[in-house]
Specification:
Layout lengths: L1 H14 L5 H12 L4 H8 L3 H22 L1 H21 L2 H14 L2
Keywords: DNA-binding
Pfam families: UPF0122
Family: Belongs to the UPF0122 family.
Length: 109
């Protein structure tokens, strides 16, 4: 559950500008400010069901953007490579440095 909330927040950071302003506000109220569906509905002057429907639709849109564009997956891959390079450089053996250089070169591809 928490992982889903974190993932949605990350997707919102990446693809949020592709949503309508009202969808962005709805998502921010629910995921960032941790408001309930009723509270989100009150803020947006829509019903609780309307807030739920808007959240569900916006979440589906964010997931569909990620399926097509894979920006979050690419970001995570790059972050993992950077972490591995950092770990190799911390050890500073010759083979570690060569592997770090190789990984950095792959990032440019």
């Amino acid at each position: 559950m928490l992982e889903d909330v974190v993932r949605m927040g990350r997707l919102l950071d990446l693809y949020g500008p592709l949503l309508t302003e009202k969808q962005q506000t709805c998502m921010a109220l629910y995921f960032d400010m941790d408001l309930s569906l009723s509270e989100v509905g009150e803020e947006l002057r829509i019903s609780r069901q309307g807030a739920y429907d808007m959240l569900k639709r916006a979440s589906q849109l964010l997931e569909s953007y990620e399926q097509r564009l894979r920006l979050l997956a690419r970001f995570d891959s790059i972050q993992n490579t950077i972490d591995e390079v950092q770990d190799l450089l911390d050890h500073q053996g010759y083979s570690d440095i060569e592997r770090a250089k190789q990984l950095l070169q792959e990032l440019y591809l």
